[in-house]
């Protein structure tokens, strides 16, 4: 069953990682209901992307594994 959930993506070394992160998010765009991204104003190489998702956990876990496999990327997921 597809449930609403929240995924946070912490991006370290933002300028190096963002292109591949963007590709992964685009590939999974059909499960992203909302997206909010900010950078740390005191440290331009760090950012936080928050996603509202509607998908089953298998798809979410697959996307998280891809993201976590990138250098400088950490994810955290919360079911609502």
From TrEMBL:
In terms of InterPro entries, this protein maps to: Acetolactate_synth/TF_NikR_C, ACT-like_dom_sf, FeFe-hyd_TM1266
Please, which domain of life does this record's source organism belong to? Bacteria
Which Pfam family is an annotated match for this chain, by its short name? Answer: TM1266-like
Q: What is this protein called?
A: Transcription factor NikR nickel binding C-terminal domain-containing protein
What is the protein's species of origin? Anaeromicrobium sediminis
